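assembly run, all chains below
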Amino acid sequence: MIQIQNVSKWYGSFQVLTDCTTAIQKGEVVVVCGPSGSGKSTLIKTVNALEPIDNGDILVDGTSVVHPKTDLPKLRSKVGMVFQHFELFPHLTVTENLTLAQIKVLQRNQEEAKNRGLKILERVGLSAHKDKFPSQLSGGQQQRVAIARALSMDPIVMLFDEPTSALDPEMVGEVLDVMVQLANEGMTMICVTHEMGFAKRVSDRVIFMDQGRIVEDCQKDVFFGDSDSRTPRAQDFLRKILQH
Amino acid sequence: MSAWDWQVFCKDTIDQAIVASCFGSGNDQSYLDWLLSAWGWTLKVSALALVLALMVGICVGVIRTLPHRTLALAGDAWTELFRNIPVLVQVFLWYFVVPELLPAMKRLPSYFLVVCALGFYTSARISEQVRAGIQSIPKGQLYAGLAMGLTLAQTYRYVLLPVALRMVIPPLTSEAMSIVKNSAVAFAVSIAELVMFARQASEETSRDIEIYLAVTMLYFVSSLGVFALARLIEIKVKVPGFLGAKQ
Amino acid sequence: MNLDFSFITGDLLVNYIWGGLKYSVLLTLVAMAGGIVLGTLLAMMRLSGIRALEWPASLYVNTIRSIPLVMVILWFFLLVPFIIGRPIGAENSAYFTFIIFEAAYFAEIMRAGIQSVPKGQTYAGYAIGLTYGQTMQFIVLPQAFRNMLPVLLTQTIILFQDTSLVYAIGAYDLLKGFEVVGKNFNRPVETYLVATVVYFVICFSLSMLVRRLQKKITIIR
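ok done. output:
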């Protein structure tokens, strides 16, 4: 479904991604973790071409993100993304947030878009708030709407960029619940996250990054279970985060 | 200085006789008529210039924030050009130089040239406000728009501009009020607006104080009017809970 | 379109333009100095917390800011001779005009500047026994100036542009110099083009300098 091939990226003279290669199959849930500055947020943003890459290629459902003829908006409409700071459009109501891209990108009509949007809003448990503005919702509610917004485009894969990092601890649970539900329904997901509990419970694979490289890329049970065979850096990381 | 003579406004402009109703009839005109007509010209020139300034200024402001470096730099150059020349010099430029360089412009009425001068001068300042407004929006909003599959143009249209434009209503109000004040430079090329009236009428009637006071009052009223209109617009487009509006 | 710039000689520049340029620059500097002093005073009045001081200052600032500069120039040209009792030339009346006018704009800038200095600084001044005047003079105003220096300089560039409006009373400034040349040599197109370039070069270089200064100040902080 998604193939990342020898991807490298520089910000000026600083190399932020070095020769990253991996592949994600349909239905897989992959967690990407690592220390700050390891490039994990950058890597996930290259998948839907929000950040351009300097070397290598990324294939999303067979379409290359670097090919000059690729219709990027079309590609992006198939890839759902959820951001750390929710990024709901503050001047639009919840319903309008859900329908904007459906109408403008997928060319659905108003009726269709609204129905689809509200159906998904119900799935995340927020139907009552359909006419509110984002500023009238709590952080957890906003993030759930953001997930609904991405889902209403009927994407083939969902990307999560630290979806719970900006939330108060008591709201993290409600968002993770939605994500777990999604995973159980078979959605292909790539999650950059610090929530190791979530990773242990729901992921299939874990990718560990450090200083722009993919250092570990293995099955969840191997990553968490057989820690002695992991690289020293990964062992170090696991020791520190699993203390809590 | 002799005592006040507010009757001057009721005088006929040609024979200085006092007209009963203070408004002239037929071909005769009282100073009051003239004052009001001059006010009309001030407002007309200001309004047209504001429309031009907003259209051009918002476009250039947007262009200056685009990822295309050359376009953005061109926008910056445009802004620097029009910001660093005094407005009166720009009026002379449009009035004396442009018709020579572009003969087609000779056929246009002179107030149109003043509108261009005022409009382009103010567009540079407006582009600065709009640029700052757009750049103050967190990058995440741009990413969110693009991530949903919107093109850059759609993201600007539906995500960035609605927010940026609401943000810059206060500085734009200030620019609109400035345009009314700057329209005064039109006197230098004989447009029949308020300052022109002030100079000529005070010369004719020697009642400088009364004339100047009346003109000043009208500038006040115009400024207040613009301010009130802008407040109304700001209230109409407010989004609950956003940018300080009530929930 | 026949542009002929050959009539512009060194002599011409000295005879017609130099005098006007000197006046424009002098007017700018006088108005800047006077305007900042008066403006700072007005700003302090508006922030004093004393109604009797706040009201007049606010009235002054808001009134001046609502009237076109050209009108203010005309008003002063009319009134100043009455006030000081004798006739006064256009060039001289402009000095008064611009100080009074620009003070209203500098007042707003200095008000923002004073408010940008954390209140704690004022408290610290009082705590070590300084009076209000001393606290302002030695602690608050120096910081306010540092903070607002780029804005003050930008306003001065705008002031320089504004001086061209003395055209309304026939004062002989840089622009008038160009106008006279244009009329005398019957070449308005070339003259106004040169005038545009001259003003642009002056204002643009100054604003580039201000931008450089702004970067330096930010680092020092």
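Chain A is about 40% helix and 25% strand.

The mean pLDDT of chain A is 90.

not gonna interpret more than that til we talk
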